[in-house]
Specification:
343 residues, alpha/beta, Rossmann fold, Dihydrodipicolinate Reductase, domain 2, 6-stranded mixed β-sheet, 14 helices
């Protein structure tokens, strides 16, 4: 079986994925799967297409030395994302560019185009599943292709797959989680005695927070992930506007100390629950948790989610929520799942 991949976005995540793909090449061949990267397109780093496959070492060396892949020696240079999807011989598209939660573009158009051309699609970009997951699922079904997006929520920590597969018939009622590592890192530093501004600067210095940290500290990143999880696991079709959202921007050292005296700890909790009448209640907001709560012990940039089920009670999974290899691994596992479904 031959799988030909076009990668849209060659930043940290895209490069992490291709490193994993190269490291797993022999194992894939042992399974009888011919998986090759045939195209890469990035609005800043350039693009290249070779229908016979690209050499990953050459691509990565170009990025290391030239910061661009425009000098790749053997391929068609200069395709944009749309042309890469439309004119390459790829039968699977990985969309790993930056996320826009207001319009979903250009990733949403890329996803629609790939599916309409009967190409399987893997997303790490939150925009499309936040804004149009139900539409994309229907479109994929109509075009007989597979859609996967594990990396959009907890990176390589398998929140979506766990919920859709192992917990699919568990009587899943809802979830509560720490879905943004940056805010959790800041709260951890504040517990250690730093004030909010100092903790935010440390998060920025260490690469956890952007120069504009709004999406993280005001809860919007977690809000988008609540939408994805709710619509994926609770058979819903909610919008961002239906998820109440508060961040940690106003937290003070006094708040942290007050919780400590109560034997509790502040966490930015993202949650959704289906109540008895079928209504979904979803939110992102700071909450004080008792120290014996499984989410209370999750510190630093780590993410965690607790699923509430009928048959198993609470099930908690903890792991990395960002990074080159964790998110790259999410792409890789999504591709493996697609292979198993279509072989």
């Amino acid at each position: 079986m031959e799988l030909r991949i076009a990668l849209i976005g060659f930043g940290v995540v895209g490069q992490g994925f291709v490193r994993i793909l190269a490291q797993q090449e022999e194992w894939l061949k042992e399974q009888g799967w011919d998986v090759k990267l045939v195209a890469v397109s990035d609005i800043q780093k350039g693009s290249v297409y070779n229908p016979d496959g690209l050499n990953i070492d050459t691509l990565l060396n170009l990025m290391l030395n030239e910061k661009t892949i425009a000098g790749y020696p053997d391929g068609v240079i200069g395709f944009d994302g749309t042309k890469t999807i439309s004119e390459s011989n790829a039968n699977l598209v990985v969309e790993a560019s930056w996320s826009n939660l207001e319009t979903g573009e250009p990733a949403l158009s890329y996803a629609r185009r790939a599916i309409e051309m009967s190409k399987h699609i893997v997303l790490t970009n939150k925009g499309p599943p936040v804004l149009a997951l139900c539409e994309l699922k229907k479109l994929a079904q109509d075009n007989s292709v597979e859609l996967r997006y594990e990396g959009t929520v907890l990176s390589g920590t398998p929140a979506i797959n766990l919920g859709q597969l192992n917990l699919s018939q568990s009587g899943l009622r809802g979830f509560r989680g720490i879905l943004n590592g940056t805010s959790n890192f800041i709260l951890t530093l504040m517990e250690e005695g730093q004030d909010y501004d100092a903790a935010l600067k440390r998060a920025q210095d260490e690469g956890y927070a952007e120069a504009d940290p709004t999406a993280d500290v005001d809860g919007h990143d977690a809000q988008g992930k609540v939408v994805i999880l709710t619509n994926s696991l609770l058979n819903a079709d909610i919008r961002l506007s239906e998820v109440h959202c508060e961040g940690i921007r106003g937290m003070s050292k006094d708040d942290i100390e007050s919780a400590r005296k109560e034997g509790k700890r502040w966490k930015l909790i993202a949650s959704a629950e289906r109540i008895d009448d079928g209504t979904i209640i979803a939110s992102v907001k700071p909450e004080k948790l008792s120290l014996n709560h499984p989410l209370a012990s999750v510190m630093g940039a780590t993410n965690s989610i607790t699923f509430s089920t009928e048959y198993l009670g609470d099930v908690t999974i903890t792991g990395p929520g960002a990074g080159a290899f964790p998110t790259g691994y999410a792409i890789f596992t999504d591709i493996l799942d697609i292979i198993r479904c279509i072989k």
